[in-house]
UniProtKB/TrEMBL annotation:
This is Endoribonuclease YbeY. SUPFAM superfamilies: Metalloproteases ('zincins'), catalytic domain. Keywords: Cytoplasm, Endonuclease, Hydrolase, Metal-binding, Nuclease, Ribosome biogenesis, rRNA processing, Zinc. GO terms for molecular function: metalloendopeptidase activity; RNA endonuclease activity; zinc ion binding. Transmembrane segments: none annotated.
Length: 159
């Protein structure tokens, strides 16, 4: 599983390697084809505001945006595809400064908030949504389960 992390935010007080490992863990747990590729980009507030306005039509910055790439992506397709078996799952864009504010409100660290947001973005790329109450319950339950499993696997606790 190839996960590419590009930090264009200027924020450096988190571990990019761990963020990439979390993303790989989530993709593996969700049984995404191991040849899939994911891009995780961290941007500053102004860049996130621009993306939020341009693609969502909403003012101000947001914490996470997900941009799927391959419309034909199916998480369960066979690993024995003979054509080009790699697929770009998409891009997850995170804003560490928004994450830092949210983390303070939630009572945990910014790195934990980035893990929550990255997991959330990946689930969006996999087709999960939270527009309806039932969808929201399902997505949040899965997100919490993935993060709890990550905490156990990484020995990270919940800091």
């Amino acid at each position: 599983m190839a996960v590419f992390v590009a930090n264009e935010s200027g924020v450096t007080d988190f571990d990019e390697v761990t963020l990439a490992a979390l993303a790989r863990f989530v993709l593996d747990t969700m049984k995404v084809n191991p040849l899939a590729e994911l891009s995780v980009m961290l941007v500053e507030v102004d860049a996130m505001t621009d993306l939020h306005v341009r693609y969502m039509g909403e003012d101000g910055p947001t914490d996470v945006l997900a941009f799927p790439q391959d419309e034909a992506f199916e998480p369960s397709w066979s690993e024995s595809v003979e054509e080009d078996p790699t697929t770009l799952l998409g891009d997850v864009v995170l804003c560490p400064e928004v994450a830092r504010r949210q983390a303070g409100q939630a009572g945990h660290g910014m790195e934990r908030e980035l893990h929550i947001l990255c997991t959330h973005g990946i689930l969006h790329l996999l087709g999960y949504d939270h527009a309806e109450p039932e969808e929201e319950r399902e997505m949040w339950k899965l997100q919490n389960s993935l993060l709890a499993s990550w905490d156990i696997a990484a020995g990270a606790g919940t800091s």
